[in-house]
Amino acid sequence: MGHRVVxxxxxxxxxxEWVPFGKNYMTEFIDRITLREYQRKRIKYFTASExxxxxxxxxxxxxxxxxxxxxxxxxxxxxxxxxxxxxxxGKKDVFIYVDYLGRCIYASEIIKAEDEKEIISLDNLSFIIxxxxxxxxxxxxxxxxxxxxxxxxTLYGKIKVYKHVTVLTETEIEINEYTILEISQVIGxxxxxxxxxxxxxxxxxxxxxxxxxxxxxxxxxxxxxxFIRSITGVSRDLFFKLNNIASKLEVISSNLESGVDLEDxxxxxxxxxxxxxxxxxxxxxxxxxxxxxxxxxxxxxxxFGDFDLxxxxxxxxxxxxxxxxxxxxxxxNILKSNDSLATSLARLLTTISEDLERKIANQLAENTKYxxxxxxxxxxxxxxxxxxxxxxAAHVLLSTSGKEEILHHIKILGFPLEFxxxxxxxxxxxxVGKIIIEYRKKRVLKE
Length: 447
What we know:
Distance between the termini: 90 Å
Structural class: alpha+beta
Strand order of the largest sheet: 3-4-5-6-7-2-11-14-13-12
Order of helices and strands: EEHHEEEEEEEEHHEHEEEHHHHHEEH
Shape: rod-shaped
């Protein structure tokens, strides 16, 4: 029957993610984006531009992109609401909400996509959402503090590409195999559909699609439930990361058992150092999640109206929060196991390294002794060669002088004089050879 395009009117895209915050980081964050920090330090942080009205705006510039931040409202130590204008291929205004739990919400109304205005196809929307995810990640990466950025980059790399996606529309959607296929482009494979107040909430792998004549009714639900799914996603990421670390540790253990050399030890020590840093980050993030989940469990049900509580009950939020508790306990146990194994392998590596270094040192000592003995033998041989040269020279001189017969008849202590001449010359040659070799040794050592 061909491809059927599903179009919706003025879709609102809401992205939700968790970023490590807390009240201290929240205070610093609010100070930074409201310019309080720079006002206290008397630092001019506005960009110099005649084309922009910077009187009431905080403008942050980098070499990669530019965004203008407009503060809407903030509660000290608790939360802040602001808009960010993303410039690039086209300008997009994004509403951003951040609170001390680490709940980050990015919202944008899509009024144009390609040649479509107001009525947007899900095909085009599926291309816009990844851009929003990347742009929001870049904005937040530059606004948060370096320690927060380090935690996120250790877990996800330079740019975090996963965010929970919520699409809101007032367009009524008829559920069939074609519309489900189209909707899955923006929220992932469809897992569940519930009817609420003549509207639909469609749950996918990584998002929610809400179709209702008055989508604003779902504001508190969107504020609450996607954050839980975001935390669930982070817990899965930690679990995956720990399993990956466990596999690395198993390989290292196998390599240590099979035997290693000094080059291998250096590589393994570097790998263990990287694993240690990752485990430290996971422990910090796990601590954040544990506090958040305990807070959400203790404050459930939230102070919402009957309509929102009814939806939360339908999607079994309470059960999911309890499951998150168990997941955190499981992560803590695996973290302890990996940490213990990494510590044991580090100690074993140190022992193997020390044993190997000791063996190498002993071998070097033996080689040194051998080389010294060989050198001494060579010195004796060279000195003897000098003596032989002197003996041969004396013999040749006596033979060519014609005095050999005369000297033979002159005896001292019963030995002919030629014997004493040859003996003295040989001893002198040995002595001269010894002097020359010692001089050469001192010169080489000095150099």
